[in-house]
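ZP: hey, is the nicotinamide-adenine-dinucleotide complex queued? I don't see it on the tracker
AM: it wasn't, my bad. submitting now with these inputs:
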Amino acid sequence: MDKLVKVALIGCGHRSEVYASYSLQHPDLMKVVAVVDPKDVRLKKTGDMFSVSKENRFHSVEEFLKAKIVADAVINGTMDAIHYKTSIPLLEAGYNMLLEKPIALNKEELLGIYRTSRKHNCKVMICHVLRYAPFYVKIKELINDGAIGDIIQIVSEENVSFHHMATAFVRGKWRSIASCGSEIMMAKCCHDLDVISWLKSGVKPTYVSSLGGLYLYTEEKAPKGAGSKCLVDCDVEENCIYSSKKMYLEADVWSYYSREYLDKFEQKEGEDLLEWSLKENNPLGRCVYKCDNDVMDHQSVIIEYEDGTHATHVLLGGTMRPSRTVHIVGTKAEIYGDITSGEIYLRTANIGKKEAGEELCDEQLIKTDNSGGHGGGDYRLSADFCHFINGSSTSISTTEIGDSIYGHMIGFEADKAMKEKKVVKINL
Ligand SMILES: NC(=O)c1ccc[n+]([C@@H]2O[C@H](COP(=O)([O-])OP(=O)(O)OC[C@H]3O[C@@H](n4cnc5c(N)ncnc54)[C@H](O)[C@@H]3O)[C@@H](O)[C@H]2O)c1
């Protein structure tokens, strides 16, 4: 029987709340005992949500450490740029950790967190939620069972979608290195690079190269008549797929991102706060062609492994439909899958026939809603984290920090390769 895991939340934002919500469904397995956030409004909201006592609400990691709170682990859900700064003192104090991806901004910080966790015997698990999506679990099981033989090549695609791209990577928090510290390959696709590394089961990546660019979301591509804010001064808003009026007021897409800026505003009498903020200072009210964004909107990465095999990952920004696809060719057979439709096909050669044999691997997956919460991965991760901390049996998907190094190194070196237009050797 697993014992109760007491956790402290470092950063009371969207992701910490997602993982900690597990404690509300399973109060016997997880309990939030402390919350840390510099913002009072966040401390109150999250503290109240998880019934944390007033004396266990802290404005900084330093205050939290001074209080010597007894907890089995911390959930570090701060933004990318402060993962290193916040994680090191917590690990030095001996706290186990669930840490959001990307682990850090560069190789030095990545290895710094890894080595500190080893030195202080801390268990660290990374929020590679995609590994928990039933879609990828099925693919991993097929590979482990030898269904396709040895992997020769993996080709994966992340289709971000125009609405997600606009909300997070053009107008939102991950739009620039200055605002989040990470390039889009790490901010968005470190999941995919992790999945590729996981499917390769520990084979070392040796070389990486990449090309990409920011083509669409620039001032030069603005249509004639475009204003600076969709609800204020735009003549073409009505027919624009990026209209913040259509996205956030009518379709209510990505509501937790459009509403997270509302803390800063005061309700105006008789006016909808979100609508008002989109006209004023809510960054999501801006024209996608006139933002301060600098991350890529398309990028391709190619990887060589020490066993002579290869993988390619393609980030497609403004696609019409969000999805991830993966095609894995092995020495005996191949797998093709699309996470949004839930279809995974195992294709084998039909000796003596022109058409390949094709088997749909899991009927149930098609009926599952694979769209939200990383294909259902978010909630399974919290459960696995509790098992991980308790030392009880964990799942096939568990991402101990040591398993996450290759995927992250591919991402860091891919961005270097893209900027320098060369092939980079991965030195580890
Ligand atoms: N696993 C995934 O699929 C996934 C999805 C989205 C985001 N993320 C990652 O999760 C992380 C958090 O993203 P989010 O959208 O939840 O961010 P958020 O902005 O909603 O939350 C971050 C919180 O940290 C607080 N904070 C700032 N400085 C702090 C400090 N020094 N100490 C403690 N708290 C501090 C902020 O006030 C904020 O409340 C990011 O690294 C992001 O890239 C992961």
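AM: back. The two ends are 39 Å apart (CA to CA).
ZP: great, adding it to the tracker
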